[in-house]
Write a structure and sequence with these properties.
Layout lengths: L1 H7 L3 E3 L11 E4 L5 E6 L8 H15 L5 E5 L6 H11 L5 E5 L1 H10 L1 H6 L40 H14 L1 E7 L5 H12 L4 E3 L7 H9 L5 E5 L3 H5 L6 H9 L3 E7 H7 L3 H4 L2 E4 L6 H8 L4 H6 L8 H7 L1 H10 L5 H10 L2
Helix pairs in contact: 6-7, 8-10
Length: about 350
């Protein structure tokens, strides 16, 4: 990157930082005697809190010499949250702050073949991963209901807290797991929050637990922000070469968002594991609240509206998953007074 800058900016003077670079990797002396300072960071992945502190420390050192402009050169493109952070720095210092990211570096390499031969920006694996906005609920593991289509989504009571957590995770990395029974609607609720809050992130869903270590390496060097999607987290915890605590810590340090679901029985078994303890958890009740059922009754999807009329002891998502024919079978076999009876009855069917 230093060579690239020297070819783009005439009169650039590089600084040997072995004895302390004063926050200056390169300096361009302007005709009026003022100084344009460049700070080069070879970060890949995301701007974690630790990396932001590094940038701020370099900027503070450079500020002592009062440059007219300070430019950060880094081979990644900022997320909206990272731009907000960088813009906040502009309000703190009395000189101009700029940033040359991955797209700028690539464009300069394309403009000049000589630069292209000398400089090759880190290649991202994110091109093989779709953006969240380009996926659908089925891609996340949400099952279809009667008619072969996913039902319309009904907002759940935990949505505001969940979405706030996802916004925070999208800024600097974080792990969130939704806990609840297998038919509570965990996957759909988590996916809808993801699609709303982080639509431009790359969606990374392992096809097999054995892929996790390799995917984690790709995520940590990706130029675009990523979400590692671990539906049914116990599948990865059970797998010997799958997700381990140290691997999760590495992924989180890169600024990646990790989202997972875990049912109640598996949570009881894994709750003390290092992986689960690193995650923020929310419980999604299988039985829908009065407000949730009211929202479901108002749905334009007749399947959802009909499911909302079922016994309040039965969740709407649960009824949709069972389907009308199975639901009628269950009701004819035993009365359901409490959620626990659902599991007793369902085991007896078929």
């Amino acid at each position: 990157m230093a060579i690239l800058l020297g070819m783009v900016y005439s009169g650039l003077r590089h600084v040997d930082g072995s004895g302390g670079d004063r926050g200056e990797d390169a300096v361009r002396l302007l005709p009026d005697g003022k100084r344009h300072v460049f700070q080069i960071k070879s970060f890949t992945g995301r701007l974690s809190p630790a990396r932001r502190r590094q940038v701020r420390k370099s900027l503070d050192r450079a500020a002592r010499n009062v440059p007219t402009c300070w430019t950060l050169v880094v081979p990644l493109d900022f997320t909206p949250g990272e731009w907000d952070w960088f813009d906040s720095l502009r309000e703190t210092y009395p000189f101009s702050l700029e940033c040359h990211g991955l797209r700028w570096l690539n464009s300069k390499a394309v403009e000049n073949p000589a630069i292209g031969r000398l400089f090759q920006a880190p290649q991202s694996q994110s091109h093989v991963w779709p953006r969240v906005a380009d996926t659908g609920p089925v891609d996340a593991g949400v099952p279809v209901a009667e008619g072969g289509e996913v039902p319309a989504y009904v907002p759940r009571d935990i949505d505001p807290v969940l979405r706030a957590w996802l916004r925070q995770a999208g800024e600097s990395g974080g792990a969130v797991v939704i806990l609840g029974d297998s038919v509570a609607g965990k996957t759909r609720t988590l996916y809808e929050a993801l699609r709303e809050e982080l639509p431009d992130h790359c969606f990374v869903r392992p096809a097999d637990p054995a892929e996790v270590p390799q995917l984690a390496e790709g995520i940590m060097t990706a130029a675009e922000p990523c979400v590692l999607w671990l539906d049914e987290l116990h599948r990865y915890l059970d797998h010997g070469c799958g997700l381990i605590a140290s691997g999760l810590r590495k992924v989180l340090r890169s600024g990646t968002t990790v989202l997972a679901t875990l049912d109640g029985a598996a949570y009881e078994y894994w709750r003390r594991s290092d992986v689960v303890r690193q995650m923020r958890s929310l419980v999604l009740d299988r039985r829908w609240s009065v407000a949730e059922r009211q929202r479901a009754r108002m749905s334009q999807d007749p399947r959802v509206a009909q499911a909302a009329q079922a016994d309040p002891a039965i969740g709407v998502a649960e009824c949709l998953a069972a389907g009308p024919w199975l639901w009628q079978e269950l009701r004819s076999r035993c009365p359901i007074d409490h959620g626990d009876h659902w599991f007793e009855c369902s085991d007896s069917v078929g």
